[in-house]
Design brief:
With 424 residues, the protein is α/β, with parallel strands linked by helices. 30% of the residues lie in helices and 21% in strands. The strands form five sheets. It has a ten-stranded mixed sheet, with helices on both faces. Strands 14, 16, 17 and 18 form a four-stranded mixed sheet that branches. It is globular, with a radius of gyration of 21 Å. Bound molecules: guanosine-5'-diphosphate, 6-O-phosphoryl inosine monophosphate and magnesium ion. The site of guanosine-5'-diphosphate has 22 residues, from helix 1 and strand 3. Guanosine-5'-diphosphate binds next to helix 1 and strand 3.
Length: 424
């Protein structure tokens, strides 16, 4: 029997997970999202189409694949409806092959308002949330107050909605905050009607049945390991488990049924929002990475902070997730640089260390190793042998240090821009 392969980000999100899932989807029968919500923005490009998915799994453009939104995901009906409408405008009708867990939680308009109010109160120490209501929705889930997708079928759903909304209103009164949930309810309830058109399933049975039928399943992570609620740079994190273990709790698959763990990382680092970022470049090299890499948020449009690849952080993510394959994206963005740096250790309290300290904020200084850059345009290379020697050296070094093979090198945003070391 096949096992569930898990694909996730190893940095602070936006590693290119959507593109990689889209490339891998033909090899699978099922693509399943296991956590996060519309804070995610997963970009796909093919045949001249550029598309960004927030809630819907990145297998949706491949006909005949099952796409599942798992119980670990939080769904904003309004955003979900927009996603479905935008797929329709591209000729993709998702009703037949998109399934939604009855146990996935709902993001209410008042969750969004609570997110905004909480961030406003934090002032300079704000997290830089995407303001999609993610934190408050997960708080209601763990606080046992949440509304779930399955609840929309109950006759008293509106009463339950109003009860939770009023609870939120009491909390919002404590903030100096003018907006109110009613301003967003019309669209939100239209979104609820849209969700009713889909197949709402007991997703833990659904996915285990597919497994038993020997279907190949890919679990798609959102955000990245360094944004994980437990293992990320807390409190500058998101509110879910983005790590491999999150695929088990977010889908109802047993740990013994997970297979390959595919870790996606960028050839450099980016971060959007607040929080520590040891290798951040605030100089013209950072600006160059942002411009060349088009590093502006897929969900919020915010400029992403950019910096060099951070190996201690990458090794940490490999450890936490048990990564078995690495897939690197955006190395093409480094083309043209005379030299490229990789952070190999941190200086922390006067000592060299390769471990991430408990409190990183402002307290670690990166130690770099310098690599020669390459000038050759690598964006249309189709064969690993044609990659410049300097680039191969860069990849080998990462493989030696992480002890994990790089099995895909993405060289551009398009579906076709990738090479597969060891597979040619
Ligand atoms: P995700 O959230 O991990 O799916 O990543 P995003 O879609 O938010 O951000 C990745 C961005 O990089 C998107 O604009 C992709 O189209 C783009 N991208 C993905 N892989 C590559 C690559 O190998 N090279 C370049 N230049 N862009 C890429
Ligand atoms: P994908 O799936 C990058 C960041 C936010 C903020 C922090 C908390 O596209 O990789 P939240 O809205 O979750 O309360 O925000 O996490 N963040 C992301 N950064 N990519 C993402 O998703 C992100 N989702 C959340 O910028 O710093
Ligand atoms: Mg993204």
């Amino acid at each position: 029997m096949h096992k569930v392969d898990v694909l996730l980000g190893l940095q602070w999100g936006d590693e290119g997970k959507g593109k990689i899932v889209d490339v891998l989807a033909p090899e699978y029968d099922v693509v399943a999202r296991f956590q996060g919500g519309p804070n995610a923005g997963h970009s796909l490009e093919f045949s001249g189409i550029k598309h960004i998915l927030h809630t819907i799994p990145s297998g949706i453009f491949h006909a005949g694949k099952i796409n599942l939104v798992g119980n670990g995901v939080v769904i904003d009906p309004e955003i979900f409806k927009k996603e479905i409408d935008s797929l329709l405008s591209l000729g993709v009708n998702a009703t037949g092959n998109l399934f939604i867990s009855k146990k996935a939680h709902l993001i209410l308009p008042s969750h969004r308002l609570l997110d905004a109010a909480s961030e406003a109160l934090k002032g300079n120490s704000k997290i830089g949330s995407t303001l999609k209501g993610i934190g408050p929705a997960y708080m209601d889930k763990t606080g046992r107050n949440g509304l779930r997708i399955g609840d929309i079928m109950l006759p008293d759903f509106n009463d339950r909605y109003n009860f939770l909304k009023e609870k939120h209103r009491t909390i919002l009164k404590q903030y100096d905050f003018g907006d109110n949930p009613e301003n967003y309810e019309e669209e939100w309830f239209r979104g609820i009607e849209k969700i009713r058109e889909f197949q709402l399933v007991d997703s833990e049975y659904f996915i285990n049945k597919l497994l038993a039928e020997n279907k190949k399943i890919l679990a798609e992570g959102a955000q990245g390991t360094l944004l994980d609620i437990d293992f990320g740079s807390y409190p500058y994190v998101t509110s879910s488990n983005t790590v491999c273990a999150g695929a088990c709790t977010g889908l109802g698959i047993a740990p013994s049924k997970t297979g390959e763990v595919i870790g996606v990382f960028k050839a450099y680092c980016t971060r959007v929002g607040g929080g520590p970022f040891p290798t951040e470049l605030t100089d013209e090299t950072g600006d160059r990475l942002r411009e060349q890499g088009k590093e502006f948020g897929s969900t919020t449009g915010r400029p992403r902070r950019c910096g060099w690849l951070d190996l201690p952080a990458l090794k940490y993510s490999v450890m936490i997730n048990g990564v078995t394959q690495l897939m690197i994206t955006k190395a093409d963005v480094l083309t043209g640089l005379d030299s490229i740096r990789i952070c190999t250790a941190y200086k922390h309290e006067g000592k060299l260390t390769e471990t991430l300290p408990f409190d990183m904020a402002g307290k670690v200084e990166p130690v770099y190793r310098e690599f020669s850059g390459w000038k050759k345009d690598i964006s249309s290379i189709k064969n690993c042998d044609d990659l410049p020697a300097e680039f191969k050296r860069y990849i080998s070094y990462i493989e030696e240090e992480t002890r994990v093979p790089v099995t895909m090198i993405s060289l551009g945003p398009d579906r076709t821009a990738a090479v597969f070391p060891g597979k040619e």
